[in-house]
Amino acid sequence: NPWNDSLVLPAPQQGIASGLEAGDTRVMNGRVMINGALWFTHNVFLPVDSPTHIAVDWWQVNPVLNSVLQFGRIEDLSAQTSYYYPGIMVNDNNDALVGYCVSSPGLYSSAAYSFHFSTDAPGAMRNPYIYKNGLAPYYKTLGGGRNRWGDFTGTAVDPVDQSFWNFGQFAGVAQSWETVIAHVPDSNNTCLAHADFYNSPGLSCGVPFAVNF
């Protein structure tokens, strides 16, 4: 699963031609040693011959045998959406959460994550979930030539119940970046969220119509 390491791409964003400086392919915020295995994550630029977008690779390796136990890639195969500045954390159950920024020509830079249950197939990661959409384009060079986004993202495990806290970055209004925190249960916890809805018997609707939960 090769990637291009020499060309560093900006991450595209909605509403402006200038992309965000999304970093390079080094392992930065994402690495953890747990249960005898080393987990880490980093950016990759794809496709290898002529990169057009940014994806996230994540790994679980045996540091004693120098062998790969799991490998996965979070990527938009249509090459429209980019994922960058990932962080990873793993709990005692070997559940793993990868948090990152995500953007595209139709999406402001947003905070998102993907989840891997310990019982999932090796290398499998649940679909990306955006928990805070960006609100505006971001362009701020502070007198230089870099529209620097940031490595202000990360993931932590709650020592009380092995759930996850993801610290995500998103583009705010007025050329600002902001931080948002998501709390994600681990595989041993039952999700307490539920859907609710209401109807208006006297209201007639055309087809199709929207139902809001």
Task: Describe the 3D structure.
33% of the residues are buried. The strands form four sheets. A four-stranded antiparallel beta sheet has the order 3-4-5-6, with no helix packed on it. Strands 7-8-9-10 form a four-stranded antiparallel beta sheet, with no helix packed on it. It has 213 residues and is mostly beta strands. The radius of gyration is 19 Å and the shape is globular. Strand 3 (31-34) and strand 4 (37-46) form a beta hairpin. The chain has strands at residues 10-13, 16-21, 31-34, 37-46, 53-62, 67-74, 82-90, 96-104, 107-116, 129-132, 154-157, 164-171, 177-184.
Protein traits:
213 residues, four-stranded antiparallel sheet, 0% helix
Short structural description:
The protein is built from no helices and 13 strands. It has strands at 10-13, 16-21, 31-34, 37-46, 53-62, 67-74, 82-90, 96-104, 107-116, 129-132, 154-157, 164-171, 177-184.
